Amino acid sequence: FPKTIFNVANFGLEDPHVIALSEALTVNDIIEKIDLGDNRIRQQGCLALAVALESNERVQMLNLSNNEIAHGGPATMTPQMMESFKATGRLKNLSGGKHLLPWWLQERILVEELWFPEEEENDEAKEEAGKTEEKPKNVVVPIAMWAMKRLLANTKHLKFLALANNDIGDFGIGYLCAGLLHNSSLDTLDLRGNKISDKGGVKIAEVLRENDTLENLDLSWNYLSFGGLVAIAEALKANSTIKNLQLSWNAIGKQGAIAIADAMKVSQSLEVLNLSNNKIEGKEPWEALIEAIRVCRLQSLSLTDNPLSHSMADKLWEVMGAQLVDAKDKEVNPLDMDRLMQRYKVVINHASIKNFEYKGLEDLKHGYEASGGRAAEEEAAQTAVEEAKAGQKEGKRDGKKTKK
User: Fold this and answer.
1) How far is residue 137 from each of residues 94, 96, 119, 324, measured CA to CA in Å?
2) By CB distance 3.0 to 4.6 Å, which of 25, 67, 192, 282 could disulfide with 164?
């Protein structure tokens, strides 16, 4: 069969619908791509889907973006349920869910070990505080991410997973990363807009150091700052597979940018890097980035909407032959440094950085080169400056004559 896409995006699906769909997927061997984006899928729907896909050898792509996976309340395990779970290896009904788990799902939820990252965090917090309190009697389990951990650890077929805009947070990311450490199939992971902060960034860095299949990772629109970005940058130095890393709309800042620049110099695999809207400002981070651009292997670098001074813009121009592109009109104007400081994109035109992000820019580039390129523009600009000076002198003469 040709690749079959099951597209029910934006259908208003909720957990009961997805649980029914999941049961069908346990026996379906045709569908390869599933798009469930923009629905209202919560914890138990995601649990059912992940468990069903563990035994499915056909599905390669799963899109769960823009759902409510982190909502619906994480399930709570009572002490009795915990003991039963440890004894039988079976997870029955969890409190906190709107619907009871169907029999087929209960029978399939089998695990060899329990791993709850919050237990580790509680221990560390208590040790730091010098407390000896007993552990909470009830264990809170984000069952959606717990199931995703199992899926990622066991699947040999899933290559694409999109979980964007689900508010997963650091807690859920801990489970997800635990599965990724044992995954050998996934090459694309979309985690945009999931409230991932530095704690989650450190977990992701652990994955980047160990995983050898992931090529495309989107961490845009999260809360990553210095701690998380430095950990990720260090991991990139050891990683040999990541080609496309999206980090726009975080808070990389000064030290984070310097760390990323160091990783750019070393990385042998990174081809596309997006650092847009990251509060990168000041002399040191820009100098580090410019120096990295001299030697890196990147094909595309996005630096949109990061404050850039005139002096740094001049250096950027020297090193890369930067072209300023108006995102609205797509007009090439490489000499206008004032606009470079505003909300526009620096598109790199360099021996090793050559990819243009906006459609139609290749035509603009060819037209620009055909008209004489930078030399012609500089000559035209110089002529314009001389004409402007001549006009000013003429204006002064006219003014003097008028006064007389």
Assistant:
1) 15, 16, 11, 59
2) 192
**Model pLDDT for residues 216-257, shown as the tens digit of each residue:** 999 999 999 999 999 999 999 999 999 999 999 999 999 999
- Phi and psi dihedrals of 62, rounded to 5? -135, 120
Residue 67 has pLDDT above 90, yes or no: yes
**More confident call, 325 vs 210:** 210
Q: Is the pLDDT of residue 99 over 50?
A: no
Tokens linked to 58: 């056909």
**pLDDT for 157 beyond 60:** yes
Task: State the Cα–Cα distance between residues 34 and 159, nearest whole angstrom.
Answer: 12
How are beta strands 160-162 and 188-190 bridged, if at all? parallel
Beta strands 75-77 and 139-141, pairing class: antiparallel
d(CA 225, CA 228): 6
- From the list 19, 14, 12, the residue with the least C-alpha distance to 48 is 19
Confidence of residue 358 (pLDDT cuts 50, 70, 90): very low
Q: What is the CA radius of gyration of the chain?
A: 27
Please, are residues 163 and 65 in contact by the beta-carbon 8 Å criterion? Answer: yes
